[in-house]
Amino acid sequence: VTISRQSYRPYPFEVTAVHLDFDLDPASTLVTSRLSLHRKEANAPLVLDGEELDLVSIKVDGQLLDASRYEVGEHGLTIHGLGQTVELEIANRCSPQANSTLMGLYVSNGVFFTQCEAEGFRRITYFPDRPDVMSRFTVTLRAAKAEFPVLLSNGNLIGQTDLPDGRHEAQWEDPFMKPCYLFALVAGKLTWRESRVNTQSGREVLLQVYSDPGNENKTQFALESLERALRWDETRFSLELDLDRFMIVAARDFNMGAMENKGLNVFNAAYVLADPDSATDANYGAIEAVIGHEYFHNWTGNRVTCRDWFQLSLKEGLTVFRDQEFTADMMATGLDETAAASARTVKRIDDVVTLRAAQFPEDAGPMAHPIRPESYQEIGNFYTATVYEKGSEVIRMQQTLLGPDGFNEGLAEYFRRHDGQAVTCDDFVAAMESVYQKTHPGRDLSVFRHWYSQAGTPRVKVDMRYDDATRRCTLRLTQSCAPVGVERLAGIAVKPPLHIPFSMGLLDADGKALPLKLAGSDAAASDSCLLELTTETAEWVFEDIPSRPVPSLLRDFSAPVIVEYDFSDAELALLMAHDTNAFARWEAGQQLATRQILAATDAVRGGQPASLSDSFVEAWRSVLTATDLDAAYRARALALPAEKTLAERMTEVDPIALATARDHLRAELGRRLAADWQAAVDANQTPGEYSPDPIAAGKRAMKNLALAFLLAGGAPQAEAQVSEQYASSKNMTDRMAALSALVNFGPREAANTALADFFERYQSDPLSVDKWFTLQATSRHTDVETVNGLMVHPAFTLRNPNRARSLVFQFCLNNPYGFHRPDGSGYRYWAEQVLALDRLNPEISARLARAMDRWIRYVPALSAQMKQALEDVRNHPGLSRNVTEIVSKALEIS
Ligand code: ARG
Ligand code: ZN
C-alpha cells in the first residue's frame, strides 16, 4: 500500500498523558499502558497501532472491556463507543529477546534498548504511533537488579526502589510533551562517565555517556563532544538545554547512526567509543558530528517536531545543516583567519563529496524523491541521502539567501511560532520568509518552495559572452530538471523553475580575480557575486572586464545542482592553480581528473593503453608541492573523484573498466610524482602523542594519501615504509591507512601477514574487527568465494548490523572488481543476502537492496543479470514491505 502526503487527517483523540509500566524480561515483557484520552471528533472509533504484540487486557475507566467493544488485528486495535474523556489501560506482552528487527524493544549484548522512530513504538504497545500525537510521559521500569542494575528512560529520575524478589524499579518523568517516537528505555549492566556543566542561564545539568562495562576508557571524547555541542548551540543559535539531565547510551546492535530520544539518546557504539589505538581520525570526526546531530535534535526535532513523516526533512535536513555547521566551526576553532577559512572549505568539500556520491545517484534513480516525499510504502526506506543531505543543502540555501543573521532571526521566529508543536516544512519556510520579506521587500520564497516538491538534480547551463568593444561580459544561466523515476511514472513532463543561489567570480588570463561590477547595480565591486536564478533562464552583465575572463562557477557549492560549462583543460588548470575560492579550486582539479579517468576508461574498454596528459600530471604536482596550502586541503585536492560520482557521468557504466582506469591513474600519478609524494610523506609526520585535532588529522590524511600513491606507483621504498608504519604506529589512523595500502596496492603476501596480525591484535574489539572485515570486503582480490569464506568466520554474524555492513554491504557497494564479475556471481550473492537479512531485519535488508538502484545504467551484459537478481528477490514469497518497495521500484523503471 502506498501512503500519500495528501491523505493527512488529524487524529480524532488527544492523548494528554501516558503512563507506561514495564516488567522487563527478555523472553516476555509485560507492558501496561495507561492513556488519558480526550475525544476531539464525535463518533470516531479509537484506532491504535500495534504490531507483534500479545494483548492481555483492556480496561476503560477501571472496568474490563467487553470483547464486543474492540477488534484486534495484525496491525492494531480498534475500540468503539468511548466517551468524551476516558482512562484507558491496556496490558500486552512483547518478546525483546526474539526481536531481531532492532525496532521496538530489543536486547543487545544483554541490555534492553528501544528504537521507536519512525514506527517502532507500535511494537511495544498499542498506541497512536504518529508524530502529531503528543503527550506527557511517565515511565516505571521493573527488572531483576543483578542483571539490570541500570534503568533509564526519558527526562528526570523521580524515584528508585528495591523490590522483594531481587527486582528493583525506577520511575522517570519527562516534563515535555512528546510524540511516542521519542520514547526510550535502556536497562542493563552499564558503566558510565559523567560531568556537570552550567548552561548559559546558569542551570546545572548532568551529562552522562553509558557503555558496556570495560569501555569506560573509550567515552571521554564523546562526553567532551557533547559539552562542545551544548556550548555551540548556545552561542550560535541561543538554544539552551531544557533538561536537568542528558544521557547518551552506546548500543552494539543498532540499525542507524543514533537516535535523539528526549534526554536519552541511543547511539550505535561506532559513534561513541574511541581511543587512539582503535579509532581513526574519521571515527573521531564522525563521533563529534553524530553527537552534535542528536543533541541539536533536542530543539530541531523534539521541541518542534514533524506533523507527519512526509515532513521528515523538517527535522533531518535542518539538523544535518546544524551538525555540518558545528563541525565546520569546531574545525576552524583556534585558527587564524586564512587557516580557518581553509578548514571550513575542507568540511564543505567532504560534505559535497558525500552528496555527489550518495545523493545525486539516488536522485537520478528509481528511489528519487523530493526532500519532502509525496508518497511512500515504508517510511523506514525514506531515511535517505535526499531527506538528510539534500535537505541540508535546501536549508543552507535559505541561509545563503537570508544571510547568517537573517537565518538566525528566521530560526528564532520558527521557535516563537511553533515551540511545542508538530509542524510541516511549509511552516519552516514561512517563518524564514517572514524575515526574508523584511530585507527583500516585494519578494518571497514561493519559487524557492519548489525545492520541497521536486525530485532530481537540477542542471544549470552557463553561457558566457565577452564583447571586446564594450568590455562587457554576459553570463546567461539556464536551469532544467528532467523528470525522474516516480515523476516520470506519474506523467510529470514539465517542472517549474527553482530559486537557485549561484555564487561565481571571474578570473583574468593570469588567474587574477577580477572585481565584479554588475551593470545597473550600484553595489561596490567585489570578488564574488551571488546570482539569484528564479526563472528558467536569466542574464547578468559585468562591466569593465579587460579581456575574456575564465568563470569560477558555483563557488562553495551554493546550490545542489550540476553545472554545465565548456571549460578547456587549460582553463580548469588555471582555476585549479589560482582561484581565490578554495572550493572552486578543488572543483576544477576534480573536473580535470574526471576527464582523465573517463578518457582512460574508454581506452580500457577499447583495449587501448590508457595514458594521462602531461599537463594533468603537472597540475597535480603543483598542488602537491604548494606548501602554502594546508595538508588537509591538499589531501582533498589530490584525491581522485569517487567511482560512484564518476559512474554518473558515463552513458553506460562499465564498472571494472572504470575501476581499472582509476587505479591506473593512481599508479601513474604515483610513479611520475614519486619524489614529490615522498617529500609529502616526510613533511607530514605527526610525532608525539596522538590527537584527533584537524591539523594533525590533515597531516595524517596527506601523508597516508601520499603513501598510497607511492605504493600504487611501485616506488621501491614504499612497501617497507608502509609495513613499518603498520607495525610501529601508535594510532589506528596510521595503522589502518598502512594496512589498507598494503591490502589494496601491496604484495599479497605482505597484506595477508598484516591482516592476520591485525585480527590477532584487535579481535576483542568489535569496531576494529568491523574494519578488518571491511578491508577484505573491498579488496580487489576478493570475490564471492572469498566473501563466503569470511561469512563463516567465527567473528561474523548477520544479526549485528555493523558487522553485516562491514562485510556484505561493503562488498556489494564498494568492491567493483569482485561484485561486478561478468559471471553474475556478485549479483546472485546480493540476492541471497537480501533474502537472508530480510528474515532478520527488513530495514537493514532494504538498505542492501538499494545496491541495485542503478542497474539499468550498466553495460547490457551486467544489467541483464542484475535485473534477473532483482526479479528473483521480488518473486520470493514473504518478502517484507521494506524490500518489496525497493526492488519493485527498481524494476518499474525498466
Ligand atoms: N532520527 C534519527 C537521526 O537521524 C534516525 C533514526 C531513524 N531510525 C530508523 N530506524 N529508521 O538522528
Ligand atoms: Zn537526525
From TrEMBL:
Keywords associated with the record: Aminopeptidase, Hydrolase, Metal-binding, Metalloprotease, Protease, Zinc
EC number(s) given by UniProt: 3.4.11.2
Gene3D superfamilies according to UniProt: 2.60.40.1840, 3.30.2010.30, Neutral Protease Domain 2, Peptidase M1, alanyl aminopeptidase, C-terminal domain, tricorn interacting facor f3 domain
Top-level taxon: Bacteria
Domain Peptidase M1 membrane alanine aminopeptidase, chain residue ranges per copy: 221-437
A GO BP annotation: proteolysis
Pfam families named in the record: DUF3458 (PF11940), DUF3458_C (PF17432), Peptidase_M1 (PF01433), Peptidase_M1_N (PF17900)
GO molecular function, one term: metallopeptidase activity
Segments forming domain Peptidase M1 alanyl aminopeptidase C-terminal: 569-892
Cofactor annotation: Zn(2+)
Membrane spanning stretches: none
Ranges of residues in domain Peptidase M1 alanyl aminopeptidase Ig-like fold: 456-566
CDD domains, A to Z: M1_APN
Domain (Aminopeptidase N-like N-terminal): residue spans on this chain: 38-182
Reactions mediated catalytically: Release of an N-terminal amino acid, Xaa-|-Yaa- from a peptide, amide or arylamide. Xaa is preferably Ala, but may be most amino acids including Pro (slow action). When a terminal hydrophobic residue is followed by a prolyl residue, the two may be released as an intact Xaa-Pro dipeptide
General function of this protein: Aminopeptidase N is involved in the degradation of intracellular peptides generated by protein breakdown during normal growth as well as in response to nutrient starvation.
Similarity-based family: Belongs to the peptidase M1 family.
Name by which UniProt lists this protein: Aminopeptidase N
Organism annotation: Pigmentiphaga litoralis
